[in-house]
Amino acid sequence: MSGYTARRFSRRGMMLVVPLTAAAVVATACSAPGADQPSSGATSGSVSTQLGSEQITLEMYAETGFPLAKALTEEFTKQYPNVRFNVREDQFTVIVENAPRVLASDSAPDIIRLPTMVDLVKDGLLKNLDPYFTAYGWEKFPASQLVQLRVAEGGRPRGSGSLYGMGLGYSVTGVFYNKQLAQKVGMTQPPATVAEFEELLAKAKAAQVQPIMQFNKNTAGINFPHQALQNQFGDPAQIADWIFQKPGATFDTPAALKATQTIQRWAQAGYFPKDANAIDYTAMNGQFQQGGGLFMFNGDWESANLDKAMAGNVGFFLFPGEAPGAKHVAMSAPNTFGVGAKAKHPDAAAFFLNWVHTNDKAREICVKVGGSSPGGPPDLTLPPVTEGTVLAETLRAAAQLGAENGAVDFTANATGAIFASAITPEMQKLVAGQQNPEGYVKAVQAEYEKELSR
Amino acid sequence: MIPPAVRARRTRWARTARWSGWLYVLPALLFYAVFVLRPLALTFQYSLYHWNGIGVARWAGLQNYVTVFTDSDLLRIIGNAFVLIVFFSFIPVGLGLLVATVVRRIAGGPFGTVVRTVLFLPQVIPLVAAGIAWSWLLSSTGLVNQVLRGVGLGGLARAWLGEFDTALPAVGVIGAWVLLGLCTILLVTGMSKIDPALYEAARIDGAGPVREFLAVTLPGLRQEIGVCLTVTVIAALASFDIVYISTGGGPGLQTTVPGLEIYRLAFAQRQVGLASALGVVLMALVLLCVLPIQRLTREDRG
Amino acid sequence: MKLSRREQLTGRLFLVALVLVTLLPFVSMLSAALQPRGSVPAGLAWPSDPQWGNFVDAFTVANMSALLRSSLLIVAGVVPVSVLVATMAGFGLGHLRVPGGRFVFLLFLLGLTLPFEAVITPIYYQVRDLGLLNTRWAIILPLIGLYMPFAVFWMRAHFVNVPQEIADAARVDGSTTWQLFWRVQVPLARPAIASLTILLFLWTWNQFLLAIVLVDDPGKRTMAGALGAFQGQWGTDQVLLCAGSLLILTPVLVVFLVFQRHFIKALLQGSVKG
């Protein structure tokens, strides 16, 4: 064995190499990085609503485990055989991480499932859809449907400004429950107040039924119940302002604190699975379907799956308010898809998005496969669904929420990294007893301010 | 005796060959300059800017470095890498010494070959695969918990990679599994080179197995131990694949390591400057850890 | 050396236990891979009805044949060029001792401990500016550069130790430098070149970071990168994930078992010198 390893870093050599490297640094440092990058994502002048007959392949980036996107593309290709799709799928966490990089590359997808759009808009990575809005007459859609998809110039605030995405279905969230287990713990009807809901949790725990099946690995699934509580404890407009990055909005509110304290109490009482931090989204669904919990906070995008896996044994309710008869407030968001600024076929992508909202067959697929309301102009009827299914229940809930005007976006969508950098790690700490409610609320707000200050 | 004419030709030949020899070095240098030195210089440059990777960068001076050294999350992430050294380096080297002693003493012939081959398997497969295999093994329903329940220790069963107290050690165990074989076999090879007479002498002096190990084996293996430590410390500090696959850095920031954070900062959060500063710091840390090890093993016996 | 029976026995038992622990992750994956699709496997349990078909499913789903082809193309792009270029540089630095070679060599050494993460960001932008993102070149070209410190170091170490007399003999014959290199030195360097080839093959095949950053299409990645994509997509289907992972592992395992002696030797030397 020789002394090569030892000879590697002779001091004399380092003295030579270091200044040389430094010189190279100085040389390259003359121009700031990115200075000569052409800005992308500007609104292109003319758009076409014609699909044409040219043979094209649309690149799509969708989420694994949700057959809706693929089902729609297949139907579309059936109707327009000259358009094929190349669908890449990843888990949601992976998309969140990849989206900026993928969109910035030259092979940016035409249609992409969007995690959160503000930063992407700020960086000019998404196509401004305003020209299509006008060309296709989307002003006929209820304005509230697309409000979350609007971003003001420069990325802030959201909720007004230009349109940057469309929904493949418009979802509503709430609580799914296992009917057999409900019977076992003596739940005869959905709870009418938060207090009643907590009583049921205690009853379930006493009956040795896992009260809530919720995931918290990779992304914080316990943010669902957290925001469900937060929605009830204060003015939802405050939450919406925070999510839309309106000036002066804060997460450090009594409502958020109370919600966090409640979550902490639930965690300590064992209402969440002991290994929630190791259960990911799919595992949660699998376990809930197999009777692993009484409640599951989730959205109507799972309705079709649940109807299939536990037919007749699953129900749904909107999370109740504090007082009986209170107006419902629930997270509700489009299943957002956007068009890449560097997309090769933006016109065809927009054509597809319009088709999803207006074509009868597509709307039916949205409901039957996606489980969510298809959106679109109000004069188009909802496709019929079988009564007695949880799908029918969630659609009714969506209509009710719409009538009560109680939809808010997800707090997780507030900024590009708030979910990954603050909510997820802090929530994991909170339920593991490593963080207190005050600290949680402050940490989320601190990350929010950090990102906004960039 | 070489005739003078030949010698003259040789000198002339040698001189031109020495210069034309650059033609042999240039291609390698070119690849290296374009894909390592230039990026390296750019990393330094980026680290002095605030840049989202798309728009125009803003000069930041040393601000990104200040952030790296003051942000409690980033400090903790760097700390995690050092915790991993215990698992990636100390355990494989310590256990490797024990295993190597046993292997050297009793495992000859086909049995020895099988042992060596199997111990080497984890070194050959992609780290990604190791991460996937162990994620499954350590999951709530995995084999580890199954065994614990089987022997009546069900109370200890847990999601090893998902809980705050166990996640980082669990990631460490994966690394130890990967690196044990390499260390063991390096040490076995080293032991075979120790002069048997030294053992003989120790025995005559009445040394027991422990003293024999301390007086003969350990000094004789100084170089190999240095190599093991160098390789494994770099593996620990620059770890990425295993963590990315098995925990994604969670729960909380419990298992986030600098490599993963650089990737996240640069490509998901688009803070290229901060990511680059962390990259420079990581590079410096690796050198800071590896250079003393080199020094320790410097005076070799050969 | 005489050993007591007891030491023999405990020693053997210890090693057998160690071998089992090393193999356990593979066995546990196999048992999960053979469970029925859609089930949630629990621990290590041999299924009553092993679903070997899962491997067929995984083969189709993962598009294995395309992955194999892609990895082979990348290896074919990286390894021969790296080995050739590094051998030439090692010859120039170690044997011809070019003027200023010492400095160049130190420059190469600078890269020996470099974590790839530290340069991945600029490499990304550089590859993007070259218009090579999402092509195999995005992995091939940077990898050749990143391998240079080790590969040059390795080959130089070999050439430094080749006795000068061999070259002298060739010079008397009147051969050119290239002939000396190609006809005399390269054949002599065969063992060093073989080990380097094995190491670079393995490192390329298992390269993960470059693959996930620079190439989005798993069909254009290395095996490890493709496995990462497979996990990203099917990570929650434990049965399929295990089946797919085992499949993706197989080629490198087979190659290892066939060439195991060379592998172990190369890896040992590689770590000692690297």
TrEMBL record, chain B:
Record keywords: Cell membrane, Membrane, Transmembrane, Transmembrane helix, Transport
Primary subcellular site in the record, as a coarse category: membrane
Keyword flag ATP-binding: no
InterPro entries, A to Z: MetI-like (IPR000515), MetI-like_sf (IPR035906), UgpAE/MalFG_permease (IPR050809)
Membrane topology note: Multi-pass membrane protein
Domain of life of the organism encoding this protein: Bacteria
SUPFAM superfamilies associated with the record: MetI-like
Annotated signal peptide: none
Membrane spanning stretches: 21-41, 77-102, 114-137, 167-188, 225-245, 272-293
Subcellular localization(s) per the UniProt record: Cell membrane
Domain ABC transmembrane type-1, residue spans: 78-293
UniProt xrefs under Gene3D superfamilies: MetI-like
Similarity comment: family membership: Belongs to the binding-protein-dependent transport system permease family.
PANTHER family documented for this protein: BLL4140 PROTEIN (PTHR43227), DIACETYLCHITOBIOSE UPTAKE SYSTEM PERMEASE PROTEIN DASB (PTHR43227:SF8)
Protein name: Sugar ABC transporter permease
Organism lineage: Bacteria, Bacillati, Actinomycetota, Actinomycetes, Micromonosporales
From TrEMBL, chain C:
Pfam families assigned to the protein according to its UniProt record, in alphabetical order: BPD_transp_1
Topology class, membrane: Multi-pass membrane protein
Matching InterPro entries: MetI-like, MetI-like_sf
CDD domains the UniProt entry points to: TM_PBP2 (cd06261)
Keyword Cytoplasm assigned: no
Keywords: Cell membrane, Membrane, Transmembrane, Transmembrane helix, Transport
Name used for this protein in its record: Sugar ABC transporter permease
Similarity field: Belongs to the binding-protein-dependent transport system permease family.
Recorded superkingdom: Bacteria
Source species: Plantactinospora endophytica
Gene3D superfamilies, per the entry: MetI-like (1.10.3720.10)
Lineage, highest ranks first: Bacteria, Bacillati, Actinomycetota, Actinomycetes, Micromonosporales
Localization per record: Cell membrane
Domain ABC transmembrane type-1 stretches: 68-259
TM segment ranges: 72-91, 103-125, 137-155, 192-215, 238-259
Keyword Glycosyltransferase: no
